[in-house]
What does this fold into?
Amino acid sequence: MSITFYVPRDSGALALGAEKVAKTLENEITARKLDAKIIRNGSRGMYWLEPMVEVETPGGRVAYGPVKASDVAALLDGGLAEGRVHPLWLGLTEHLPFLSKQTRLTFARCGITDPVSLDDYRAHDGLKGLQNTLTLSRAEIVAQVTESGLRGRGGAGFPTGIKWKTVLDTLAPQKYIVCNADEGDSGTFADRMIMEGDPFVLIEGMAIAGIAVEATKGYIYIRSEYPHAIAVMNEAIEVARKAGVLGASVLGSSYVFDIEVRVGAGAYVCGEETALLESLEGRRGIVRAKPPLPAHKGLFGKPTVINNVISLASVPVIMDRGAAFYKDFGMGRSRGTIPLQIAGNVKYAGLFEAAFGLTLGEIVDDIGGGTATGRPVKAVQVGGPLGAYFPRSLFDTPFDYEAFAAKDGLIGHAGLVVFDDSVDMLKQARFAMEFCAVESCGKCTPCRIGSTRGVEVVDRLSANIEPEKQIAVLTDLCNTMKFGSLCALGGFTPYPVMSALNHFPEDFRPAPIAVAAE
Ligand SMILES: Cc1cc2nc3c(=O)[nH]c(=O)nc-3n(C[C@H](O)[C@H](O)[C@H](O)COP(=O)(O)O)c2cc1C
Ligand code: SF4
It folds into this structure.
């Protein structure tokens, strides 16, 4: 019987040596004349185990990791092909606690299938959502997405169905679907992981969106720092086109839909939807004032749906299993599942898809296993560089849009960056202001000037120059930025700054002067 090995082609695994592992395994297969093939899958999202090699056995897939190229020969000698026990043996992949505790709806296939095999995609429930879509009217599709409770996973949490309805209701000869794959938030990698591990689910989601709102063309705006995602997406689009999933007749229907990948040059602000549109149109990424909304006047002045990768990639399962199925997961107004990206100083860094509602403490302590350094967790920044720092005292906050907002925080793109007790929160506050100053598009004064003044104020605090006065100025400046900025870059920079100040005031006070003992 032929043996099937899996070695990920995901960027995270590649960065840890997966290419060398695959090459060595291939050479060993040839030298040992084994009847075996290697599938280059996506990652399962357990990055501390990458490169994770799997082998298909009658009892299921067995995992080994982290594997180095120099381990491969000994692994084969020890029975890798049969899934035998070895020091790197992890057991059945599906039984690994980090995986078995998840609810994988959007990431159901990631790491399981061959990312660029449409047959594999179909064999794992792929295209069922799109098939169902073809039996419904546009209004019915939009109603399903609305009913599912899906909210934008890019940061703002805006209801996806309402956005789609606005575009559907705006009459125009041409409309567009734009997929935001700029993924600039610190500690986030869900968009990249799905594009590299299951690109067809994004293609399917975009095709459904196109059919729903009467758009015939879609663009995926991917950051240039994601060369592997760009390559996999382009390959998958070509396969989808050849198979009639994209093109002049989507799955043999009368609907037309095609997709093009565009590469961004790497400015954080180009993830903001209107700056992204400017960039897509070939101009410098500067934020546009709203109104008009992109849904009315977006790309090239035409009605446009702009959605994050994960929002779009969550649509196929909704259209396959139904709005009620999806809506059943979650809490409050946060429905469905969310791919948590656990990063920073944490023992088990990776992607954990779960229904909304886990507490921050469960995510960081139980799932993430605490810090990698073994020191106490001091703070967790949730939601990227514009997100608040949460102290341990707020670890009972459930992962839910409203619960985070109530604690002056945000979920954003669901990235969590963990810090141990060696972090200096005054330095983190300075970093937030500096980041805003560097990445500001410069269109509005509170952000352009305020962020630079913010760095100066924090520096004066560090130098212990009239600290009480500096704290008052910093608080006032944050209020001006929060309420006077045109977009969330300037408007949300106060979140990390003020959360650092409010939750860790001891880091903002001058260190007591040591009195030498006589
Ligand atoms: C400074 C800034 C950066 C942003 N970066 C991203 C990004 O990288 N990816 C993303 O999907 N949304 C990003 N957003 C949010 C987008 O403006 C927009 O809300 C989102 O693409 C809409 O899609 P969704 O409704 O599916 O979330 C950013 C917003 C701001 C203000
Ligand atoms: S807040 Fe900053 S990034 Fe946003 S429009 Fe104003 S200057 Fe540009």
